[in-house]
Amino acid sequence: MATFARMMKGQVRNYSAPLDMAIPAAKQKYIPSSGTYPKGFSVSGTHVGVKASNTKFPDLALISSETPCSAAAVFTTNKFQAAPVQVSRDILKNRQGQGIQSVVINSGCANAVTGKGGLEDAVSMGKTVDECNGLHEPSTLVMSTGVIGQRLPISKILDKIPTGHANLSSTHDAWLSTARAICTTDTFPKLLSRTFTLPSSPGRTYSLAGMTKGAGMIHPNMATLLGVLCTDAPVEPSALQSLLKHSISRSFNSISIDGDTSTNDTIAILANGAAGGAPISSSSSNDYAAMQEVLTSFSQSLSQLVVRDGEGATKFVTVRVQNSPDYESARLIASTIARSPLVKTALYGKDANWGRILCAIGYTQGVAPGTVVPEQTSVSFKPVDGSPILKLLVNGEPEQVDEERASVILQEEDLEIVVDLGGGEKGQQGLGGEEAVYWFCDFSHEYVTINGDYRT
Asked: In what helix (H) or strand (E) does residue 306 lie, and over which residues does it extend?
């Protein structure tokens, strides 16, 4: 009986998706109750049952525009690239980012490391959507997520694509259902929308919407995630690709959960221009600069939802590295801290063990010479409630840490770690103040539980 009790206790998941897929109460606040979605786009989430254990939840997502779109995407750098990654990359290349009209996504099976048959399955998914749209050229991007090394139940998927197409809708509920259809170990669907204006048309309102999935195997480049962004702003393909790349480098490629990356990762954006206005084509234009700011900020907000849903995570941590001689060095240091198992487990244990942060700074590879000078390095905890920072290390000298206050700060769900490579005011004068930000979560017992039985 004692053994059985221990086994049952191990199945209780306080910070991850319940076995009945109900959304935990603590995560409900991240689900939007309404949204403003881009003109000309409609979506649907359909139940297929890609995994036999899924008997009712949507697992086939379809995003479609009434008119052809400019499109761009950023793909995984993993050498074992899944079939849908290869197929979608080829479509974008052959069409030069023009004339893309839909994205189809299945969850439950990654269609990765599945050989020639997997490629044929990915092609057939896109082709079936194109046929539903009355198109004869490849115009649909394909994504998949789930278990690696297994073939898709392709007949079941192809049979349900027409159903998904018939149910396309522009309502908030449809967008939310579609966002849920791409989830795997996620505990909640990740969906955001936003309106904005551009300098050339101050009286015209544009919309941007995005959905993403991801909760484990998260670390650049890229993380184990999928994402689709849609806007009714007019953007030329070449400009769209550079806008997406910049925004991803400061958002989806600046998050970490466990330091692993996968085979299927894709973020795509479609721009159909349905809201009108002059097309954005030049990186030197005011509209381009404004769009870059909007897209980067939006992508950061969307990517942060992935961290908040990290498998077994109890904390959302921002690490801010300041006063670096260059951005890339600061980013490397922030990334190293974010993926340190010792830093992450200390935070889970609510232990102000700043020595682990310092070690991660010190062993970071690839930083510019002179970036890390022990006598100029400071580390602090910054509470999210606006109270004064807790200094741990100042100019290489340890502070007398108030352990009681540290414990109070570490009880909160959100925390910011500030690393100043120049020692505060002196650093601002000496190094020039380059800064990089990363978002990550802690490591808990539950992360091991989730991933120990993920496949079975």
From this structure: helix 286-308
Q: Which residue has the tokens 């950061």?
A: 300
Q: Could you tell me which of 19, 14, 15, 17 has the C-alpha nearest to residue 185?
A: 17
Contact 258, 246 (CB under 8 A): no
Residue pointed to by tokens 């540290």: 406
- Give the tokens for residue 346: 């200390």
Task: Please answer whether residues 372 and 333 qualify as being in contact, where contact means their C-beta atoms are separated by less than 8 angstroms.
Answer: yes
User: Tokens at residue 349, please?
Assistant: 């244990």
Phi-psi region for residue 291, left (φ > 0), alpha (ψ -120 to 50) or beta?
alpha
Q: At what angle do helices 154-166 and 115-132 cross, to 10 degrees?
A: 20
Separation CA 133–CA 314 (nearest Å): 44
More confident residue, 361 or 253: 361
CA distances from 141 to 61, 123, 244, 379 (A): 12, 9, 16, 44
* Cα angle: 285, vertex 290, 293; to 5 degrees: 130
Which residues, including other chains, have CB under 8 Å from residue 176's CB and lie 6 or more apart?
Answer: 31, 32, 189, 191
3-state secondary structure of 292: helix
Q: Which residues are catalytic?
A: 224
b/e per residue 244-281 (b: at least 16 CB within 10 A): beebbbbbbbbbbbbbebbbbbbbbbbbbbbbebebbb
Is-contact 180 60, C-beta < 8 A? no
pTM of the predicted protein model: 0.85
Q: For the segment 394-412, what is each residue's pLDDT rounded down to a tens digit?
A: 999 999 988 889 888 998 9
Distance (Å, whole) CA 392 – CA 378:
7
**pLDDT score of 200:** 96
Look-up of token digits 């001689």: 325
Q: What is the dihedral of CA 290, 295, 297, 300, to 10 degrees?
A: -160
Q: Burial, 66: exposed, middle or buried (Cβ in 10 Å; 0-12, 13-18, 19+)?
A: middle
For residue 21, whether the previous peptide bond is cis, meaning omega lies within 30 degrees of 0, is no
Residues whose CB falls within 8 Å of the CB of residue 183, separated by 6 or more in sequence, listed in order: 107, 189, 213
Omega of the bond prior to 253 within 30 degrees of 0, cis?
Answer: no
- What does the DSSP assignment read for 93-116? HHHTT-SEEEEEEEEEE---S-HH
Tell me if 324 sits within 8 A of 369, measured CB to CB. no
The predicted-structure confidence for 27-86, as pLDDT tens digits, reads as follows 899 999 999 999 999 999 999 999 988 989 999 999 999 999 999 999 887 788 899 999
